[in-house]
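Here is one chain, start to finish.
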Amino acid sequence: MQHGAAQNDAPMNDDLPLGRRTAQPRHYDPSALRTIERRTARHEMGIGESLPFSGEDVWNAYELSWLAPGGLPRIGVLTLHVPAESPRIVESKSFKLYLGGLNRTTFESARAVRDAIETDLSRETGSAVRAAIRDAGNGPPFSDFTTFCLDTLSIPVGCYERSPDLLTTLGGTGRDAVHTHLFRTLCPVTGQPDWGSVAIAYDGRLLDRASVLRYLVSYRETADFHEVATERIFVDLQAATGATALTVDARFLRRGGIDINPFRSTDTD
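Its structure:
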């Protein structure tokens, strides 16, 4: 039986443009950016100021364009690295509006565009954001996961709201690494589906792989932002396995020309 969407209890910022008709800036306008506090969802998960992980959110924007001196349009693929310890994340629609404002703005070089983006996002997120612009014909590399694919398991599934209780241990300890391409959540604002792949590697109490797949599928009707869902997975797996080493690598499909890929790990390298 398919359950209804689980609601995110975190209060939404009424100033966010997501889900509203919003005017597109005609020129470069950093004031278009809106942010969301990470601490709200983290507090709900029991995560305090001292984070139990390190990592980053990797954003790829495939529709970056600006004007060169003389008016000739330039295009590129933008990759952002936002530290997991940043106090805020940028709301995605506001970022799309911000990028749209670059379309009619002249910059001396791609480096000048990159520097402006780094400055603006570092200020808004409260952290040192790194940006890179690649030729549009050479987008960021994407390596397929090479660990055991949970999707090959033939198991019954009946829960579609996040349920950490689905995780069961086998009674021993060791290392395991698995992934799934069946992951789905819902946007907490629009209710639209967000599809992705999730890879997990850990050292700790070994989990029944079928239970891991059931657990990840249970997010199917759960409303969460990408970054929040990834951190929930990390916290739930840490609790279930007592892991001494744990990595969660989530890669979401592109929406509106941008994909977001949160990475959380006990490994600080």
